[in-house]
Amino acid sequence: MNIQEKSDKLIVTPGKPITLGATVHKKGVNFCTQVDVSGNLVLLVYKKGTTEVLKTLPFDETMRYGRVYAMNVVGFDIRRFDYGYELDGKFFKDAYGKIVNGHDIWGMKKDITYTVYNDNFNWNEDRKPNYDFSDMVMYRIHTRGFTMHKSSRVKNKGTFKGIAEKSNYLKELGITSIELMPSYDFDEIFVDVPSVDDIKNGINSMRTTRSQDGKVNYFGYVNGHYFAPKGAFSAKSGQACVNEFKEMVKTLHSNGIEVIMEFYFTAGTNPHMITDCLRHWVMEYHIDGIRINLDVAPVNMLKSDPILADIKIIGDRWNIISEYEEGNPGYEEKRHIGVCHDGFMITARKYIKSDENQVHDMISKIKENNDNAGIINYIANHNSFTVMDMVSYERKHNEANGENNMDGSEYNYSWNCGLEGPTRKRKIMDTRKQQIKNAFALLFISQGTPMIFQGDEMGRTQGGNNNPYCQDNELTWVNWNNLKTNSDIYSFIKMMIDFRKEHKILHASKELKLMDYKSLGYPDLSFHGNQPWRIDYHHVNRSFALLYNENYIPGCKGMIYVASNMYWESEEFNIPVSDKDTIWKVVIATDKAISISEEKMIVNNRTIVVPPRSIVILTEEKTKQVLVKRKMAKTRKIEKE
Q1: Residue 297: which of 306, 287, 305 has the closest Cα?
Q2: Which residues does residue 359 pair with via DSSP β-bridges, in sequence order?
Q3: Same domain, yes or no, for 92 and 188?
Q4: Considering only CA atoms, which of 109, 145, 293 is closest in space to residue 219?
Q5: Residue in 94, 65, 74 with CA at minimum distance from that of residue 24
């Protein structure tokens, strides 16, 4: 029964229930939403940019399709009107709302209205970088905290534009992919726990409020408007916020950088809505990947979805690998499933601080790879000590959170190097920086995809707070002055990224076999102790070595030897490859300054002494190659003179 109402040039008819949300078509706008409880649902038409209600349009039974209500409104001019819903006279959330008004100012919440989404962005020749996990170097970002500090020197601090302004910095560092912590619209203001009825009805209090005591939900791991970019992370609101996010993606793509979005879906979220949401971001915002909490997300639906088939899907559960093996439906040659959890971080931290019985576990993490899924490794994350705090504190210091230091993990696997907190003692400061270099050296010689948490490349500290979920201040903002203060840390990490990219064997696209399956004389990867081929797994041992054979990579030659010593005394290592035609050169040493003189680079072809708590990386060159290089260098020097 097509009952038609005409009032103030708005023509209302039953709509189409197939596509949820507000959808523009030639003859108007189709408003479609799901209501899981009984009640009187109405569509509110607002004057653009205000909360002034111009028209109330009730849904009737002809517009209900099961639990879905759909209304078609002809004459709804999206340039003049916004919209919203009420159920029994109370605000009703549009779960598919794509532009949210009222959350434009960080820390303040007003009455919410929605703007009808209409794509008018020119992508031109935008192309996704489309890296395999093996070629990625990831950088995890909190959109606000990345550029909010005054030292960031960006025009639009704490915004998507701010990230775009830092795209050259990310490119220069060697980053291929950024991962954004929740940047869809969420409510950062802590409110009283809603009633059971409110939860059931999806109803929230919409009165204007401001966060108290400066504490906010900084991380954003709460229910939100998953289809909409966060207005408070944008320089401008409304449609401009949408375009700003897209411009950020476009700018990053032009610099060869992927954009991965993290989504945290709360328990009970409709699985079809999750799929629709991720499709929307992929199609409309050109994002390159998603990170999701798999305890709620419909794993099999996402893996088999054809629209999501060429984007990266990252979760924290191992079983997504076993379910995605060759021969199963949906198998692709190119990996697009990724696994990311704290495993590498915990093992590396234990090993670096010289815990017993860690050699076996550390080796397992270094070689860990999978033909069907990417393995993502990191040293620090949003809910842990930063890398600088990892070597500066042995206890968490979360007092500022107001929970009597009871929140946050009790297990940080950290060592303060002799003194808790900040110090000016040179010996302790040097030890801390050496430990940081050890951590990143292990990260970048490991097979899994390395990920850096924002600011760790410049020694960012949170004062020992390992759970700053409510801290929106200089504690969590990246202080860009650290680039100068800790320039040696930044330079070391950049050098490690460049070294990793130069040597494909360090990030193979397939799992290394640890065998000499091509009869080249040495396996693709082998592990050693102080003596070649005799690794020591005894619980008191704190050292090992590994040998990468780059001859297994087409077009590459040579070997890479890594000697790692986390003892507090020097250790001597016998190098497995030793012949008169081989010269080993020290290219990276965590106990030294960044640059290593030519004289100190050369070692004999038998042994190397590794200082306490340090890692040394050597590359192999043949004697003839070295002589040719020296002759060429001498010739150039004479020509200059």
Answers
A1: 305
A2: none
A3: no
A4: 145
A5: 74
For β-strands 525-528 and 582-589, DSSP reports them as unpaired
Closest CA to 105 of 202, 257, 27, 211: 211
DSSP 266: P
Same domain, 304 and 351: yes
% of the chain at pLDDT higher than 70: 87
Q: CA 319 from chain center: how many Å? A: 21
- Sequence-distant (6+) residues with CB within 8 A of 574 are 530, 531, 532, 606, 607
Does residue 560 contact residue 366 with C-beta atoms inside 8 Å?
Answer: no
Percentages (nearest 5) of helix, strand, coil residues in the chain: 30, 25, 50
Are 154 and 147 contacting, i.e. CB atoms less than 8 angstroms apart? Answer: yes
What global pTM score does this model have? 0.91
Amino acid at position 278, single letter: L
Exposure of 23 in the CB half-sphere (CA atoms within 13 A): 15
204 lies in some domain? no
Q: Is the pLDDT of residue 321 over 70?
A: no
Per-residue pLDDT reduced to its tens digit, 278-317: 999 999 999 999 999 988 988 888 888 999 998 999 998 7
Last residue of a domain, one of 114, 145, 168: 114
Q: What is the CATH number of the domain that holds 607?
A: 2.60.40.1180
Tokens 């935008």 sit at which residue? 126
Asked whether 536 and 530 are in contact (CB, 8 A), the reply is yes
d(CA 471, CA 465): 10
400 and 471 in contact (C-beta within 8 Å)?
yes
Burial of 236 (0-12, 13-18, 19+ CB in 10 A): middle
pLDDT in tens, 597-633: 555 566 666 889 999 999 999 999 876 555 555 556 5
Do 189 and 86 lie in one domain? The reply is no
DSSP states of 163-231? HHHTHHHHHHHT--EEEESS-EEE--S--PPPPHHHHHHT----S-EE-STTB---S--S-EEEEEE-G
Identify whether residues 479 and 607 lie together within a single domain: no
* Distance between CA atoms of residues 522 and 378, nearest Å: 29
Q: How far apart are CA 542 and CA 612, in angstroms?
A: 11
Q: Do 393 and 367 share a domain, yes or no?
A: yes
